[in-house]
Design brief:
- By secondary structure, the protein is of the alpha+beta class.
- About 30% of the residues lie in helices and about 25% in strands.
- The chain has 14 helices and 21 strands.
- It has an eight-stranded antiparallel sheet. It has a five-stranded antiparallel sheet with strand order 7-8-12-10-11.
- A hairpin with a 6-residue loop joins β2 and β3.
- α10 runs antiparallel to α11 and α12 packs across α14.
- The longest helix has 25 residues.
- The two termini are about 35 Å apart.
Length: about 450
């Protein structure tokens, strides 16, 4: 997977290729002071400001025709506090670099998403998550934040310092300021045993509550046009470590999951009628395996096939019903879906606009390979998700607006009032925020 978004001739493009923008200028600050100065200068010039990480959002949340801040010089660990078990890291640090650095220090985050190409600020600001029975999103592991606000001042926040900002800014959508540093809770590095195996779709749904309750981290992929899934259960282990061998890892994670899968996507795109057959073959391609390793090597995997994605969080108790509706819709629609559907969970948290705010949640993610028409599939899926009071991932395709969000987020007004206070002139505004938060 490419780690950066691309840009040519002044055009910025996201990783999925579905969002482009032409900023008036780009700034790559080497310090927080330089970033704050760039915000003040933008205000003098009447320009809006957005920071962009590696471009892994499928929405236009980072797009701007004003000043584009690139944080690649704001990287690295500022401080490790072993008494409080926290690490403070610069906002432009890629999650991959953070995880590797923590491992060298004998430390680890508690949970991760399934890729680690994003910057820490981009991942947390959009609500990136993994799966977990008790352990929540990456943002829920934040213990402190530093951000540059609209007037160019630097604001620190935590549960004790500016707590009302902290409650919202952990998933701030880039609407409250530009995050410059994040303090995460960490713990001594531990081992996870992953058990991956195929399981029939109907059995997964019938046993879903049991599978969720018995495992610290449970997720599965359903292959549309089939009754098959691949399940993954991650649980803490006393060891010893038994990582996937380099040869087996290359066969499973590179050759099959990326190389052969990419070829199958090309065939399916050229001849859509072959997709159901490809799906049946793909669902049987990966065999069961068990391995034990440090967390980030278990939670994450390479994703080199480019795609566009929609993901919604529904109340956890609604997930099996929503999935049955999704399967029924695909079967009767005539759609040809070549990408598996990903299902994960998260416990309720206390972050104002977290997709898991105040309720135990399950996530259903639908994908289409880059360059294929996705609107019909996503529109039909979104209709199902919203009927269950779904909350879309802030960084993934959706059509919802501020009126909808005010109905599914009880604390939505709390966030917009804070935004009015911190950014009254909408220095961090763009079309996406105008739609999802209102003017």
């Amino acid at each position: 997977m490419s780690s950066t978004a691309s840009g040519t001739n002044g055009t910025w493009r996201n990783w999925g290729g579905n969002v482009t923008a032409r900023p008036a200028r780009e700034v790559t600050p080497a310090s927080v002071d330089e970033l704050a100065a760039a915000v003040r200068r933008a205000a003098e010039d009447g320009l809006t400001v957005k920071a962009v990480g590696t471009g892994h959002s499928f929405t236009s949340i980072a797009a701007t025709d004003g000043v584009l801040i690139r944080p690649q010089l704001l990287t690295g660990i500022r401080n490790i506090d072993r008494d409080d078990m926290t690490v403070t890291v610069e906002a432009g640090t890629p999650l991959k670099r953070l995880n590797m650095a923590l491992a060298r220090e004998g430390l680890s985050l508690t949970n991760m998403g399934d890729i680690m190409e994003q910057t820490v600020s981009g991942a947390t600001s959009t609500g990136t998550h993994g799966t977990g029975r008790e352990s929540a999103s990456i943002a829920a592991q934040i213990r402190g934040l530093e951000l540059v606000t609209a007037d160019g001042s630097v604001l620190s926040c935590s549960e004790k310092e500016n707590p009302e900002v902290f409650a919202a800014a952990r998933i701030g959508l880039g609407a409250l300021g530009i995050v410059t540093a994040i303090t995460f809770a960490v713990e001594p590095v531990f081992l996870l045993t992953a058990r991956e195996e195929p399981m029939p779709f109907d059995k997964v749904l019938a046993d879903f509550d049991e599978l969720w309750a018995e495992n610290e981290h449970f997720e599965f992929y359903w292959f549309p046009h089939t009754g098959s899934t691949t399940t993954k259960r991650n649980n803490r282990s006393a060891g010893p470590a038994k990582p996937v061998s380099p040869v087996a890892g290359w066969i499973e994670d590179e050759f099959l999951s990326n190389g052969v899968f990419q070829a199958a996507q090309w065939v399916g795109r050229a001849v859509p009628a072959t997709i159901p057959t490809i799906a049946r073959v793909s669902s049987k391609a990966l065999s069961a395996r068990t391995y034990t390793d440090i967390p980030y090597k278990v939670f994450t995997s390479p994703r080199r096939v480019r795609f566009v994605e929609m993901e919604y969080a529904v109340p956890r108790e609604a997930v099996t019903g929503a999935l049955r509706e999704l399967k029924s819709m695909v079967e009767r629609s005539g759609l040809r879906i070549s990408f598996p559907v990903e299902v994960r969970t998260a416990p309720a948290d206390d972050i104002t606009l977290s997709t898991a705010s105040g309720r135990d949640s399950a996530y259903i993610a639908v994908h289409m390979v880059k360059g294929t028409p996705y609107q019909g599939y996503f529109t039909a899926a979104e209709r199902i998700f919203t009927a269950h009071e779904g909350r879309p991932h802030w960084g993934k395709v959706h059509t919802r607006d501020a009126e909808y969000f005010a109905g599914v987020y009880p604390r939505f007004g709390e966030f917009t009032e804070l935004r009015d206070r911190l950014d009254p002139d909408r220095r961090f505004q763009n079309d996406y925020l105008r739609r999802v938060l209102g003017s």
